Structures are given as structure tokens and as C-alpha cells.
Amino acid sequence: MLTPGLYHLLFISSALFFIGVYGFVTRRNLVTMLMSIELVLNSVNLNFIAFNKYLWPNGLDGLFFTIFIIAIAAAEAAVAIAIIINLYRSHNSIDVEQAEEMKY
Amino acid sequence: MNDFLLLMKPELVISIIIFLLLFIKIGKGMSNAGMLLLIQVLLLINFGLGFFKMEEGSLFGGLYKTDMLIAYQKNLLNLGVFLISLLFADWFKKSDHLAEFFMLMLSSLLGMFFLISSGNLLMFYLSLELASIPVAAMANFDLHKKIASEAAMKMILSSAFSSGILLFGISLLYGATGTISFDLLPSVVTGSSLQIMAFIFLFAAFAFKLSIVPFHLWTADVYQGAPTATSAFLSVISKGAFAFVFITVLYKIFQPLHTVWFNLIMLLSVVTMLVGNLFALRQQSIKRFLAFSSIAQVGFILVGISSNSSAGTAAVVYFVLIYIFSNLAAFAVAGTIESQTGKESVNDYKGLYQTNPFLCWMMALALFSLAGVPPTAGFFGKLFLITAGAQNANYLFVIVVALNLVISLYYYLRIIRAMFMDKNEQPIQKLMVPASVKLGLIICAGGIVLTGLVSWIYDYIQLLS
């Protein structure tokens, strides 16, 4: 049976990262854009854990980094959602195309 | 224990001020004017305390370190925040949530302090988030305005995305080297392809924060939509702090990759200046104009950074000091006019000299300093940056930079011409400039004139770096 190695994990995390970037660039709904950013952050978490387990098992740097990233991502999402709710109140929509008061 | 208190003094003082404001806010209500006066006094004390016992040392096993130069940089940022509390008094007095605004601003400042003295990528990331998340909330402070919420949305999404990219870079760097400590990294950064890729991700995140072209697109919208005090904070304090830490990261951690980042910075510096200048030419909104001018100024900061020597560090710190005075003065004039009349277009400024000579002279002085016209300090700042950049004998690069200076002169003078020479039947009426704004503007004007002429300031910075 095939056991997952470093390359498998790195493949998944890179795929997640680029799916997140793609989603951030193409989606027009603010909440979905926020979800894409979470994908990027989770791919980073996976990266850290994989490197910590397979390459540098002596320290816990990667694990600690992951825990902090999870906490900060929650804080960031909270502020972002508060801002999006406020935007919804003034624009009656959470579509980025509707927020177009300022250009060039 | 003693060491702990003295070394972390700037951070501790800021934290105490934040808690004090919180307690006053949830305790009995204070009038806005009284609250503002209290905040100004506290920030002045904070600025004064900064000069008392600047020491060198590190804490928490190298997570936090400080030295004379870092303490000096923190003093500069303190000065900037104190000036902001003076200069935007007009807007602050009308604001419903004055204490909260300053709590957010000081939290962000606290993050910048930790950012400057971080000695580890974990600490670096945490403080970077502390420095950038509150600013997004500050950008949304005019809750009823449509463009404020749009600006805040652009700010939080782009900063979250850039921190995602930063983290991906850090994770690759960790995978390639196995350490996240600033002390150990330089010996293990060798320039393998994975490390160069990690470096490019890190660089992109810095470019987002410093609004280097091609990552500058959020800047103009955020500056225009956010309250002027927030725009001023973003363009001066936040730019300064990130420039300082950018220098640390490039000169210390990525010194082995010097050839890679030297070319990158040279190219981006020219592109940033050109784009900033060319877009500033055609702006009608004064805040948007100042946003593009600040993008162009970042291009000049990059010229200094490209020198890769202690002269570059000194030139950048000196330039940020001058930039604090001149850009804050320009934003303050724009902010005072905007908060009293709601006008912020260049056309509205026509004939301003007939009614408001004081504001006009201050704006003119600030713009001359930003453009780098000789008697003002801005000239000396640019001179040292370009001299530092010329150390690598890249004269073509320096010539392009000098040409950009000429372009920038044109659009700064356009504003001055509108204020002093253009005729207007209905200029903005005579405005009441509050005493604290006047005081702040006079401090800025003094700074703009004296920083260049008093030579020991530059000597002192050079001694430290």
C-alpha cells in the first residue's frame, strides 16, 4: 500500500494554494473571495506541517507557526466579515462589481 | 526583570496608553475636545519617553531585539503619530468614536514596533498582522459613507491576500532551510531555486504593503475613500515602518541573494516612479493625487535601499523623517479643507490663496519638499537617497531617477499654480483653522526647513546605522 510522502502533501498544498489564488481572482462574491483566502492560508498550514514532519522533525517551529496562522486567520476573517456587512448595508449587495465608486 | 521593562519600553508605553483609553471610554464619557487633548498629551509624553534610555539587547530567546537604530526608528514613528493627533483635530472633534480610532491606530503602531524589532519569522508575521488588520477597520471609520466601506473592503482583501502570499513564501523558506530565526537564516540561505522562489513570494508581500508597482492598485482607492487621518497614517507611518523592516530583511536575511534582489529592486524602482508620476499627472481628487505621489516616493526609497550599504539605511531613515513632516502637512491641509467644506478636487483649490493664505503657504512648502526643491529638506533627503544609490556605479539608473524628479516637479507645481495663480469667482471661503492644527502645521514647517539645514541630524542617523 502506498503511504503518503512529502511529495504527495506538497502536491496537495500547492494545488490548494493555486486554487485559492484562482478563486480570489475570478470570483465576484466577497464571501467567496474570503473563502479563497482561507484556502491559501490552509495550504500554507499543510506546507508547514509536512516540512516539519518529513524534513525537520527535530523542532516544532512549523507546528507552532500553523497554530498561530489558524488563530490570525480567524481574526482576519472576523474583521473582513464586519467590513463586508457594512458594505452590504450601504450597497445592498456583496458583489465586487457593485462597489465601483472609485476608478483610476 | 529590569532589562525586560527597559528594553520593551516603547511597546509597554503604547500598550498602557491603549488600555488607559479603553478604561476612560468604558468609564465615564468625556467630551471629544477633552479626550483629544488627553490623547495629544499622552502621545507627547510617549514621544518624549522614547529618547530616555535607548539600549541594545534581545529578549525571549531572540524573538525580540532592539538597538539604537531601531529605537530611533520607533521615535520617528511616535513623532508621526503625535503629529497626526494634532493635525487632524478638525476631523477628530466631529468623529463619534474618537477613542476607538486612536485605540486602533495605536494597536497598529504597536504592531509596527514589534515588526521593526522582530528577530524571528513567526514574530514578524504576527506583528505584521497586528500592524495591518486595525488599519482596515480605521479605513471604514466614516461608516455612513459608501466609498469608505469600499476602501476598507479593498484594503482588507488585498492585505489578507498579501499575507497569504507572504506565508506561502515563509513556508517554502522554512522547508528549504529548516529555521525561522533571523540569526540563523543568513548562514543557510545559499540561493537554491526553492529559496529564490520563497524570496520572490516574500518580496511580493512587501511590495503589496509598500505599494510598489505592480502591487500598487489598492493604494489610490484606499487613500481616496478612507478618512484623511487614516490615509495619512497609511502613507507615512505604515510606509516608514515597512521600509525599515524591508531593509532589515533584505540586508540581513537575504544578503547572500544580493545579486538577485539588486536587479529586481532597480527595475521595480524605476517602474514604480514612472507609474506613480504618470498617474499623478492626471488626477483631479487631491487625495488620489497624494496617493500616487506617495507611490512615486516609494520608488525613491527603493533607490536608497538598492545601495546595500549602511549609507542606504541612513538615507532611508533620514528620508522617512522628512517624509513624515512634508506628507503629513500636505494631508493635513487637504483634510482640514475636506472636513470643513467637503471639497477635495484640484479645481476647488483654485484661488485658495485669496482666502486662506496660511493653509496655502503650508501646502506649498510641503509640496516643494515632496518635489525636492533645494531650500527644503526634501531636496537633501532625495540627494542622500540618490547618492547612496549611485554607490554601485549604476549611472544610467541614477539618470533615470533624476529625470523622474523633473516629471514630479510638474505635477506638484500644478497644485501650487491652482492655489496661487488661477482665478476663481467663488473660492473656498475663509476657514477656521483650529489652534492645534496650526501648531502641528508650524511644527511640520519647522521640520521641513530645519531638518535639511541642521546637519547633525543626518550625522546622528549615520552614526547609528
Structural class of chain B: mainly alpha
How confident is the prediction overall: mean pLDDT of chain B? 90
Radius of gyration of chain B (Å): 21 Å
Poorly predicted regions of chain B are none
What fraction of residues of chain A sit in β-strands? under 5%
Largest beta-sheet characterization of chain A: none
Net shape of chain A: elongated
The two chains with the largest interface, and their residue counts, are: A-B, 43 and 42 residues
Number of helices of chain B: 21
By helix and strand content of chain A, what is the structural category? Answer: mainly alpha
In whole angstroms, how far apart are the ends of chain A? 57 Å
Number of helices of chain A: 3
In brief, what are we looking at here?
Chain A has 104 residues and is mostly helical. Chain A has helices spanning 6-26, 30-54, 61-91. Chain A has a domain at 29-92.
Structure description:
The complex is a heterodimer of chains A (104) and B (465). With 104 residues, chain A is an all-alpha fold. Chain A has a domain at 29-92. Chain A has helices spanning 6-26, 30-54, 61-91. The model of chain B has no long low-confidence stretch (mean pLDDT 90). Chain B is globular and about 65 Å long. In chain B, helix 4 packs antiparallel against helix 20 and helix 17 (357-371) runs parallel beside helix 20. Chain B has 465 residues and is an all-alpha fold.
